[in-house]
Amino acid sequence: MSGAKLTGTDSRGVALAAHGIHVGSDALLTEGFEAVGTIRLLGASIDGQLAFVRAGAARRLVLLDARCGQLADDEASWPSSPGSLVLRGFRFGALAFDTGWHQRLEWVRRQGFVDWSPDPYEQLATYYTDTGDEAAARRVRVAKHDDELTHLKTTRKKGSRAYRFWRRPFGWLVGYGYRRHRAGWLLALTLVTAGLTFRWAEAEGAIVPNEPHDSAGRPEPCGEAYPCFNSLVYGADVVLPIIDFGQDGAWRPIESSGPGPMWIWARWAFIALGWALASVFVAAFTGLVQRS
Fold first, then answer.
1. What is the 3-state secondary structure (H, E, C) of the chain?
2. What pTM value is reported for the model?
3. pLDDT tens sequence across 212-234
């Protein structure tokens, strides 16, 4: 149908209806092909290439449950408005023109966020996996989860607010399980920050020992009955749950003349942050953070 101009539609606005068609070779809608209405290839089976190249942008393109051996298209042929591209169940064996996952992700997002489906993302990610581009596959799958939350927010589905509330932080911290190293780096950064914070507190005279006393009631020196203060180890002791280096039990922050109770609140904040990051970090590496 290269160069064809479809200027009429039926009562539903469909210009080309080819439901369930089986094409043994190629289906070419190229070289100036234009349709004033919807193109419906619902359930179509094309053994060769399905081509939309150098064609006018379709007003609406329905590829629901269609399949082709190879998809050849360019951005000029994509439907322009969100929701005008239906890709649920569409399968392609290869892409003739792939300019990168960024652009192809924009193609998937033409389905919009109302009648949204995760299926096109998985099909695209599978294609990148099959071609050996695991980085692109991960990015597409992370985008799928981000867009799922956008879909839930857009449609305001009942009960989705709580899901979005806890799901979004998992996306930020570990990329829904696809960027597990991120939680490790954040945990390491928190350890360094805690160490520097408590070194500052020590310089302000805001770190005091929970010192034991001898029989005469005199405080015993550090190094004998309890460890001397080390800001980095103390920070690790505060941040990391379960692990005990002996510092947090031997020393405590107090109010100082300048910052006041800031050091006390900082300790509690690092404890909370440490539990959160360590839990996500362990869960991501043990498979408890599910990707699907």
1. CCCCEECCCCCCCEEEECCCCEECCCEECCCCCEECCEEECCCCEEEEEEEECCCCCCCEEECCCCEEEEEEECHHHCCCCCCCEECCCCEECCECCCCCHHHHHHHHHHHCCCCCCCHHHHHHHHHHHHCCCHHHHHHHHHHHHHHHHHHHHHHCCCCHHHHHHHHHHHHHHHHHHCCCHHHHHHHHHHHHHHHHHHHHHHHCCCEEECCCECCCCCECCCCCCCCCCCHHHHHHHHHCCCCCCCHHHHEEECCECCCECHHHHHHHHHHHHHHHHHHHHHHHHHCCCCCC
2. 0.71
3. 666 565 667 787 778 899 999 99
